[in-house]
Amino acid sequence: MLKAKISEISEFKGIFALKFETKFNELTMVSLEIPQRATLGSTVKLGFKSSEVIIATKNLQDCSLSNEIVCVIEKIEFGEILTSIKLKTSSDEIFESIITTNSAKRLNLKPNLSVFAYIKATSLFIDEVL
User: For residue 81, which of 59, 61, 58, 98 has the smallest C-alpha distance?
Assistant: First the structure.
């Protein structure tokens, strides 16, 4: 989970678009619902599935992904099929990505490597309003 502050809320025909300020970057979210207590200026914890975090060793350009987080690999655990990657943001927040072991090996991922993590706007959700 990542801590963020709601900086913008818009709604059209029951679809919400939110922008969040974090200590490391701006993030966006699209959702069919948001918690009632989530208002402009609220501090929240954003959630997402670890399997929804895309890892790249170079900045992705000309793609629909807008939530880019520059991270350092804190820890990596290779499994037979899946690999768990603990990522650390510039503001020392830790989150996880789970990718295939084949992809992790192809990208030559290892601890202390700087990478780009991407999360689709539709994959984010407000887990808690603080």
Answer: 98
First to last CA, the chain: 13
User: Is 18 in contact with 9 (CB distance < 8 Å)?
Assistant: yes
- Contact between 37 and 126 (Cβ < 8 Å): no
Write down the pTM of the prediction.
0.95
**Measured CA distances, 53 to 8, 83, 95, 110, 119 (Å):** 23, 12, 10, 17, 5
45 confidence band (pLDDT: 50, 70, 90):
very high
CA-to-CA separations, 9 to 15, 40, 122, in angstroms, rounded: 11, 7, 15
Residue 14 DSSP SS3 = coil
Reference 30, options 130, 122, 127; nearest CA is 122
